[in-house]
Specification:
The complex is a heterodimer. Chain A has one domain. Chain A contains nine helices and two strands, in the order H-H-H-H-H-H-H-E-E-H-H. In chain A, helix 3 packs across helix 4. The longest helix of chain A is centred in the C-terminal third of the chain and has 36 residues. Chain A starts with a helix and ends with a helix. The model of chain A has no long low-confidence stretch (mean pLDDT 83). Chain B is an all-alpha fold. Chain B has eight helices and no strands. In chain B, helix 3 runs parallel beside helix 6 and helix 4 packs across helix 5. The longest helix of chain B is centred in the C-terminal third of the chain and has 31 residues. Chain B has one domain. The relative contact order of chain B is 0.20. Chain B is 71% helix and 0% strand. Classes of the chains: A mainly alpha, B mainly alpha. The interface between A and B is large, with 42 and 42 residues.
Chain lengths: 214, 192
């Protein structure tokens, strides 16, 4: 039972409650750094580290943090992890760090992370909180990657820097520019809605069929 | 003087925080359902930005020279306390406005446009007056984008839109078209 519960917390973040497609959280880094797949993945990994680390700390210390100043405590814990991630990226991959620029410190203001601390980590035991954080972070990484890949393929004709279509491909420059981010995410959300509606209709049909049989 | 004007127009139009830097999208998509609320939120955000710019300059000049790794933590603490202070101030001065803003007032803390402003201003090494003008331009630019989207959304309430695209998907596509229009300003300063 316990095993199932933590798996459930993990899986819900990836699809059903996906932070970007279903909850529309953490939009700013989502759109700003997804002009290429590699940037998107680097950003996703940094967010992954910060979210899992701060969920772990917050839920471990959840009985010690006074309720009145909890938001400030969360923010300071998050800011500490972001500072670590910032300096680590600077040391390991200076080129990606330069491209992401100010958006790494801005992970602090990612409402997805603060939202998970407030809604989940501060109320549940450490194990569940870490599972939830892992799921949400993977969902976020998945969303970042899909947006980054679509924009890089259409806007640059390449994926991870490898040319896909040969020299005759005319790139849609607009896709790597800011408007492309808004448009691509809009269309992806449209598909997500369409999929959800279809699934609901299907489930209703199945339920109706079962009722008429029974 | 020319330099200050350039910083102002650049933050307001050419490098609009919302439409080209993708900062402050959460309130941009969340609050922009009515013109009045979005204008008020825009003004409150502009004020917080101004205070943050001054504080960030003070911190940078006097404290962070000695401990650069504390930058992020000290900025976020300054922003959170400014927002708290403004919340108390508005509650005291105008309870009606306080009720109208509701939950969105404390949420200014996690508006990345404000933290972004402090970080950009530091990275570019802006001085005191440059920082203030930059904050003013960014704040008014944020308000402008918010009010524009709110106006378009109010209009689209009345029109017949397919149910699937209603909501965030449509807002994002509207924002994409707005952002395309703002790209036109990019040529404004090509000669300078």
């Amino acid at each position: 039972m316990k095993e199932n519960l933590s798996r459930e917390e993990f899986l819900k973040g990836i699809w059903r409650d996906n932070p970007v497609f279903a909850q529309v959280l953490g939009m700013c880094p989502m759109l700003a750094v997804t002009n290429s797949a590699i940037n998107a993945v680097a950003m996703g990994m940094a967010t992954f580290f910060v979210l899992v680390g701060s969920s772990f700390l917050v839920s471990t210390f959840r009985h010690l943090i006074p309720k009145q100043v909890r938001i400030s405590c969360f923010i300071i814990i998050i800011a500490t992890f972001v500072t670590i991630a910032d300096y680590t990226l600077l040391a390991l991959v200076p080129k990606v760090h330069k491209e992401l620029g100010a958006f790494i410190p801005l992970i602090v203001a990612n409402c997805l992370i603060l939202g998970r601390q407030e809604a989940f980590a501060s109320r549940y035991p450490t194990k569940l909180a870490v599972m939830d954080a892992l799921g949400m972070a993977s969902g976020f990484l998945l969303a970042l990657f899909s947006l980054g890949a679509v924009r890089e393929i259409l806007g640059d004709g390449a994926l991870f820097g490898f040319n896909l279509f040969g020299a005759n491909f005319e790139p849609w420059v607009i896709m790597i520019l800011p408007p492309g981010g808004f448009l691509t995410l809009g269309v992806i959300l449209l598909f997500f809605n369409w999929f959800k509606t279809k699934k609901d209709e299907f489930l209703e049909d199945v339920a109706a069929a079962q009722r008429s049989e029974g | 003087m020319d330099n200050l004007l350039w910083i102002f127009v650049s933050a307001l139009l050419v490098n609009n925080f919302v439409l080209t830097y993708f900062l402050g999208l959460c309130p941009f998509l969340g609050v922009s359902n009515s013109l009045e609320t979005s204008a008020r939120l825009g003004l409150a955000t502009t004020f917080v930005m101004l205070v943050t710019a001054v504080c960030a300059w003070l911190l940078n000049t006097y404290i962070l020279v000695h401990a650069p790794y504390l930058r992020l933590i000290s900025f976020i603490v300054v922003i959170a306390s400014t927002v708290q202070f403004i919340e108390m101030l508005i509650k005291k001065l105008s309870p009606a406005l306080f009720r109208a803003m509701g939950i969105f007032l404390p949420l200014i803390t996690t508006n990345c446009a404000i933290l972004g402003l402090a970080i950009f201003a530091t990275n570019r090494g802006y001085g005191f007056w440059e920082g203030i003008v930059y904050a003013l331009g960014a704040g008014i630019g944020f308000t402008l984008a918010l009010v524009l989207l709110a106006g378009l959304r109010e209009e689209s309430e009345l029109s017949d839109v397919p149910a699937l695209i209603k909501g965030t998907a449509m807002n994002l596509i509207i924002a994409g078209i707005l952002s395309m229009a703002f790209m036109g300003f990019a040529g404004l300063f090509s000669s300078t």
